[in-house]
Amino acid sequence: MNRKSIIEFCLVPPPYGGVTVYVKRLSDRLRSEGYEVGGYYTEECKDQSIISSPIYFKEKSYCGSHNRVVKAFTQMFRMLKNTFQMWPFSIVHYHGLENLKFIWFLYKYCRKQVVITVHSMMIESFYRRTDRMNKHYMQKLAEADIQWTAVSEQARECMLRLPFSFKNEIPVIAAYVPIPNEAQIPLAKDMQDYIHQHEQNIAFYARSFMYNDGVDVYGLNEAIKLYADIVSNYKANVGLIFCLSENKDTDKINGLYLYAKELGIYDKIYWQIGAIDNINELWQNVDVYIRPTSTDGDSVAVREVLDQGTKVVASDVCWRPDGVISYQFGNGDDFLTKTIHALKCGRAKATPNFNCYNAMKQVFDNITR
Length: 369
Description:
- The protein is of the alpha/beta class.
- The chain has 14 helices and 14 strands.
């Protein structure tokens, strides 16, 4: 078994999202520096280097039967299959909080070194909702000699408020690796045309319709309302590229369209509904990225945008990296004022930051010494 071998227990994109993109970039970077890194992909994946790799495994959809016997058999089969796939790797890097019984099994009985990265501040609400068995194994893993990391100070504080203690210190390491310097896929021609038709452009991105205790996490309506205010209050011709990665919930999507029509801006917005796999090209071609989240961690998207020299206007619901222009969450006037200020400031020089990657690599280096 190669001590410098890691299995990233998370999908690579697609599906597109902050965690999956991070896992792909982290894996590629670690591999370039001497680690053997494997992982999982879905049938949506078109990357032949992943599909043909002997250390990447296709994750299939499993039976969703409500029959307890069938469900138990399916879960056991999946667990055995994953165990066989992970056997050659010395380190398991897990990016979730579900099925912690299996992670405990890998640690206790398969003698795997385990690293668990918590990506969300919502770990407390997750703990309240999860079943008793998962709570039990979360505590056992917290008290075991494994390495937990948190992507933000807020996430770490939430972890420390759980009703048990962690054996090891929890470092805060943002889930961010700069985008590699390689040829990017050009933006769709109609998106390019839209951008060129405007003096300045704002981008908004949400992976899905996500709620925390009934509150919209990404702030989709807030983004639309802000743009209506920009159109009414700012002299320059400004466009909005509105990106929503998941396109399955047509009723809610139609609700966004209706809201934009009520505000008289539906036809002024570029609606990117569905995954966009060249998001970095978008960051390079807009002036401001808005993030009106109601709860947040250390966002990958925010760091990507900052690295490209694009201004970021984000809610003050959590700590934000240097360079972010924060506004008071829920205060539409402050959101408008800060966004207009960002538009007037313009873009800065692109500067990639590898500090977060180096800190994560140090975790693995410490394990493999």
